[in-house]
Design goal:
Blueprint (H helix, E strand, L loop, with lengths): L4 H8 L8 H9 L4 E4 L8 H9 L3 E5 L3 H13 L4 E4 L6 H9 L5 E4 L1 H4 L2 H7 L4 E6 L19 H6 L6 E5 L4 H11 L6 E3 L17 H11 L4 E5 L2 H12 L5 E4 L5 H13 L4 E5 L2
Parallel strand pairs: 1-6, 1-7, 2-4, 2-5, 3-4, 5-6, 8-10, 9-10
Length: 283
Amino acid sequence: MLDPLPDLQRIFGFPEFRGVQRDVVDRVLAGERTLAVMPTGAGKSLCYQLPATMLEGTCVVVSPLIALMHDQLRAATAVGIRAATLTSVDTNREETIARFRAGELDLLYVAPERASNESFRNLLGQAKLSLFAIDEAHCVSEWGHDFRPDYRLLRPLLDSFPDVPRLALTATADAHTRADILEQLGLPKDGLIISGFDRPNIRYAISPRDNVNRQIADIVAKIPGPGIVYAQTRAATEKLAEALGRTGRPTRAYHAGLDPHIRAKNQADFVASEDMVICATVA
């Protein structure tokens, strides 16, 4: 079997794997089907990005959020991985399809709605595939906190390519959800790898509501660096961004109702900034 350590060091610059990364990567390289439950920040994306550079063909990554896909696209491209996205806001669709057909992509990111489409299945049959990576895999389960019905439609696509390895990844899955993911995505029980959920670097605090905008402004003033404030509605994100902007801190709103170009620009501004606060809907 291929030794992934030299490629890890060469591409990502890391001296060693962290946690259960090596276990997951080894299973992928061996052609096994796997469900990896790893906390956010544990390096889940590396578990498919690295094999994608080592195996022949393209790794198809199913992800539920356009913003997440574009963040991962930037990160992958930055280390020299050949990657692209097929989303509703991308304007280079034909170029991406041509690159895929020509075998010029290591990673292709798509939303579950596209992945379950018959025409997309036909497209995948026109080039060699190395791996299916299903990110945020808890979305496949009705037991999960963020159930997405389109994730339930992925199984026929996966079964159309039975020899292509499958890797499902999530940071949040209890026993019920894990069992459901395994069943829905056709993964073996012995393919489950768990590294836990705890994030000791996160601080949780609860305070009574008392003029919420002022409370949030006080927190923002005390804490330097970029940050995200979540709100329940689109209107609330815009009002909150305007209120926080009056404190002198650069702010942006982010929600699905924005023009796609404005939304993409706001996200890019946030990623590039060292002190911006973005106000977003929980979706």
